[in-house]
Amino acid sequence: MDLILYTADRSRGLMIAWLLEELGVPYRTRCLDLASGEHKDLAYRAVHPLGSVPALVIDGEPMVESLAMALFLADACSAGELAPLPGHPDRSRYLQWMVYATATVEPKLAAPFVRSLGVPVEDWPEVSTDAERRSFSEVLGPLAASFPRGHILPSGFSAVDLLLGVELHWADQVGLLAPESPARSYVSRLRARPSWARLVDRSPALSTHVLEPPVRGGRGTSQA
Ligand SMILES: N[C@@H](CCC(=O)N[C@@H](CS)C(=O)NCC(=O)O)C(=O)O
């Protein structure tokens, strides 16, 4: 399968790149500069009609929507390793948490994430409000019991951990996670995977999406 991933720094393309690294599938990357607006060029509109990222060109056919790409790649390329196959007892749970990560968790980090785009990296951990930390902690509630074992599905590590892992990584960058929380330990363990190191190696020199900012004071008391 010939794969070209159109992505950008601190975009959902990170989820797809991490999944591809974990799958060990060869792919090429085209990194777009959102600040310069090159993603709105007519040429790129032929790949993504809205001029957004990510887009994945599979054997010449463009695919959009990060969740759809993740579901497709995990099914097509992992032989059941990263996605329980239909009929597996964890299949419905897998689909549930894949959608929960993108439809329910992701919107809760949107506001502080967007705010962080306008401030220096060292100030990212301070951009979240107490109300946002509480609200983020609430949506993590149903997942909290799974964090200590290092994977969300009872049957083991899956693409859920990669999607949710990127969201918790961003949440960590913008100070939504309490320093000693199980969610923060979970995402730290995920970042220790060799696939994350490969992602860091492949990231362009100026990219900030893989940065691990230092823990700062005044983060409130969220325990998620
Ligand atoms: N639902 C889409 C959202 C795509 C999206 O909004 N991407 C952002 C980056 S994460 C983007 O390209 N923003 C710039 C723009 O759309 O102009 C997906 O999951 O792929």
Describe the structure.
The protein is α+β, with helices and mostly antiparallel strands. Helix content is about 45%, strand content about 10%. It has a domain at about 90-190: Up-down Bundle (Glutathione S-transferase Yfyf (Class Pi), Chain A, domain 2), CATH 1.20.1050. It is built from eight helices and four strands; from the N terminus they run E-H-E-H-E-E-H-H-H-H-H-H. Helix 4 (about 90-115) runs parallel beside helix 6. The longest helix has 26 residues, at about 90-115. The radius of gyration is 17 Å and the shape is globular. The protein binds glutathione. Glutathione binds next to loops.
Short characterization:
With 224 residues, the chain is of the alpha+beta class. The protein has a domain at 91-192: Up-down Bundle (Glutathione S-transferase Yfyf (Class Pi), Chain A, domain 2). The chain has 8 helices and 4 strands.
